[in-house]
Amino acid sequence: MSAVLTYKGHTVPHITAWSSEHLKQPPVVRSAGGVTFADIAFAGFPHRDSAGVLWQPWALRQGDGMPEFGRVHGPRQRRAMRRRLCQVCGGPADENEQGTLWLLENHVTAPGWPEREVTTHPPVCASCVPLVRSQCPHMQDAVTVRVGRAAVDGIYGLLYAAGLGGPVPGEAKVVFAGDPRVKWMVGAQLAATLCNVTVVDRPEPVTEEPVVRAGAHR
């Protein structure tokens, strides 16, 4: 477990956004085959990554201002997903012979779950599991799993459609690599498909119907 930030006695997860990190997003305009930002030189930040994904802009000022527990900082979330870092402390996630430690929202009634679960929640280290359970209301009955292989193959973001006056925002969802709709999206977070999943701790099944998860909401 690495050092964690706190605010007024509460642990601030590594991927939580801080109030000083907001950047005003430039207008979304039509481009060849999709969308782009109107100001291509906005604040010196590159808009697209090497895969051509257009990302929502963020400043990097972790710890400055007030934490926004309901918002995820896109760049830190993506780094945690790619490098298998703990979503709470930012240190290496726990690993053993069964794979990487992950906490998943309890959807045990879904057929085949949790194999091939798609999530935007990064993994965790063992020391931070109690913190996630205690501070995140929707993770209090979370299922602890080990993941043998996590394919970071999806982008969660806001999809746009062509309109007479320009691109029209639609719904936020996960689109997978190779899908042409990626060019019509402003990405916010990475999503991973979890394979070779072993359940470590399974709470009592929930009674409500499983819902479609689209993003990491805290």
Structural descriptors:
218 residues; mainly beta; 7-stranded mixed β-sheet; two-stranded antiparallel sheet; 2 helices; 13 strands; globular; disordered C terminus
Which percent band covers the strand fraction? Answer: 35-45%
Number of helices: 2
Low-confidence stretches: 205-218
Q: What order do the SSEs take from the amino end to the carboxyl end, as H and E?
A: EEEEEEEHEEEHEEE
In total, the number of strands is 13
N- to C-terminal distance: 21 Å
Helix-strand makeup class? mainly beta
- Number of individual domains: 1
Query: Biggest sheet: strands, sense, closure?
Result: 7 strands, mixed
Helix content: under 10%
What value does the Rg take, in angstroms? Answer: 18 Å
Outline type: globular
Q: What kind of assembly state do the chains in view correspond to? A: single chain
User: What value does the average pLDDT take?
Assistant: 86
Question: Can you describe what's shown?
Answer:
With about 220 residues, this protein is mostly beta strands. The protein has helices at about 75-85, 130-135, and strands at about 5, 10, 15-20, 30, 35, 55, 65-70, 95, 100-105, 115-120, 145-160, 170-175, 185-200. The strands form four sheets. Strands 6, 8, 9, 10, 11, 12 and 13 form a seven-stranded mixed beta sheet that branches. Strands 1-2 form a two-stranded antiparallel ribbon. It has one domain (about 25-200).
